[in-house]
Amino acid sequence: METEDSETLTDQNLLRDKFREFARETGMLGQERVDLVNGTVDELIEAGHAEAAAMAEWKDAINENWADLLELIDTRAQLLTTSYELLRYFDDGKELVAQIHDKQKELPDDVGEDFSKAESFHRMHAAFERDISALGKQVQQFQETAARLHAQYAGGRADAIQGKEREVVEAWRGLLEACDGRRAQLEDTAEKFRFFAVVRDLMAWMESTIQQIETQEKPR
């Protein structure tokens, strides 16, 4: 099931659209013909035609066959729709995993050489996490689709549906873990530079105090 690609998805969509048009035209034309036959038979029966009983049987047979044909068309349309949805599911899953991996590649390794740069990286990372929230909504929607499709299938297809969902979820979890690690690293770096700044201020204060002591007059 994993072998379908976007080209197959496009072909399936075209096939579905063509059948919809076929079903619409067939339904309209067929109903007109059936209605015409029914009307003609009813008129003949009311007029007391000698073969009225046989005509009534033919009318019933035609209506039964027409109902069977409509049911067949409806079943075929449902199968095409279901097939398209399944293809779309795998295609969307493949695209979603690619997007997640691309986002993860955007995470830099640099944490900054000073407090100002580290803070700048931290703001950029916060914006990045807000940006991927839309991707998280897509993952949630994909899981909802997976649950709906999984309930419709069994066996190998059900396993494939679960497998694709698992691939998407694992990719998303990997991105979130990478984001958490990046945020923690930036916070640690900012704390380090903040500590260094406190130490520098303290050292400067002590040196200043020592100078003040040394410049004061010594006791006689």
Automatic annotation (TrEMBL):
Repeat in keyword set: yes
SMART domains: SPEC (SM00150)
CDD domains assigned to the protein according to its UniProt record, in alphabetical order: SPEC
A Pfam family assignment: Spectrin
GO molecular function: actin binding
UniProt keyword terms in alphabetical order: Actin-binding, Repeat
Keyword DNA-binding: no
Superkingdom of this protein's organism: Eukaryota
InterPro entries cross-referenced by the UniProt entry: Spectrin/alpha-actinin (IPR018159), Spectrin_repeat (IPR002017)
Protein name: Spectrin beta chain, erythrocytic
Organism ancestry: Eukaryota, Metazoa, Chordata, Craniata, Vertebrata
Gene (UniProt): SPTB_1
